[in-house]
Amino acid sequence: MNRTLAQHQEKSILDDVQTFQKVSLNYHKNKEQDNTERMDRATSEFRYEDCRDQYWNPEEYSLFYGTSLWSQSSKAQRIILNQLYWVAYYSQIISAEIATILLNQTSAAGLSTLEDFRAVCDMLDLESAQERAHIHAFKKISEDTEESLFGERLFTYPMRSMFVDTLIFYNSNQIKKFWKSLQLYAFSMLSSGNAFIGCQYFTVRGLRTLNGKIIQHALSQYYLKHPDKDNAPIPSKISFYHFMDESFHFSSSGIISHDVLKSLKPPTKFESWVANTALHGCQKDHYNFSTVIKGIFWYDPALYPVVYKLLRSRVFNMNDSEAKQIMRDCFTKESDALHQSHKIHETAAASYRAYLEPIDYVDRANKEMSLMGRSSIQEYLVTNRRALEGFIRAR
To answer: How do the domains of the chain map onto residue ranges?
Structure first.
């Protein structure tokens, strides 16, 4: 059948040879170097006892690095804080990848309403399969580690839907959670039947992974530069394998959000509104920055119960007054950790602006990251002082 007569749309990705080649090359290269088997094998071999005395990341990627808690910690405690950075960071990544699996599929469904987008859909199918392997690795290692250290969860959680929570520790309440859940349900339904909204998800994913790319590259370097790779701690190997897979996922987000969209009709006012609402939601999610863990935009007051439990655990063995005092020192005073996290937050906002600059449908508030740009160290300190005193009085 004549392809032109068979088409349901005016444009086709096949007409954009350069973009089609980008999609095909990214898919085939990812398939060739797929790290799923290596990751599964390493995960099956993980035993916390084998690497409990080793750093898993570069030292500066440790919980509370640059705070008074870090300064007074012993070598053994610093190693655990380094390992817990890995646990906390990848526990958040699990949540992101749960969402990616679903939204990859709904977006592919939206693209499937048009002709000739199989190459894009195949690329997304491969990514989803890789995400399942990533989740399994992060979940097993993180849960085994917390079981060995504490006998209970601190940063890990049972598997759950993306409609429950996307960020693990954030500024929310039951009403906000319910409203956000409704928005996520609506977006997933719209993306499954609308090619533009399906593609626009990758604009949001592109932003969310820009900062991740910086952090994950740093984490992967620990294994890449390890003098004895065969005996390197397995979590560092997982970080490297994950970054290698994600490098192609980073590329696919950029290709779809910047190039594939050119093969679609310009968005309607409604479609543009949905797209900008989703981008505004990303700004809200990334508004905060954390003294506990740099590179993830958690809301520190939501972390207080976990931090208190960590300080009272056998790892630090603090009494009640000691734990509360170190929390005051870490959360209510300026520190290197606070300034490092704020700097990463500013770098992320700048990279988001650059990413969105060439996209026509994005409104000014999102292109300028006006909401995210209002977050400041002074506001952080005021908020944390008030919240911490409330937490202490309640105990």
So the answer is: 14-394
Identify the band that residue 7 occupies on the pLDDT scale cut at 50, 70 and 90.
low
Other CB atoms closer than 10 Å to residue 309's CB: what's the count? 14
pTM over 0.85? The answer is yes
Euclidean distance between CA atoms 321 and 327, whole angstroms = 10
pLDDT in tens, 375-388: 999 999 999 999 99
Class level of CATH domain 14-394: mainly alpha
Contacts of residue 141, defined as CB under 8 A and 6 or more positions apart, other chains included, come to 43, 46, 86, 87, 90, 234, 235, 238
The 10s digit of each residue's pLDDT in 18-43 is: 999 999 999 999 999 999 999 999 99
The confidence score (pLDDT) of residue 69 equals 98
- Which residues in 177-192 are b (16+ Cβ under 10 Å) and which e? eeebbeebeebbebbb
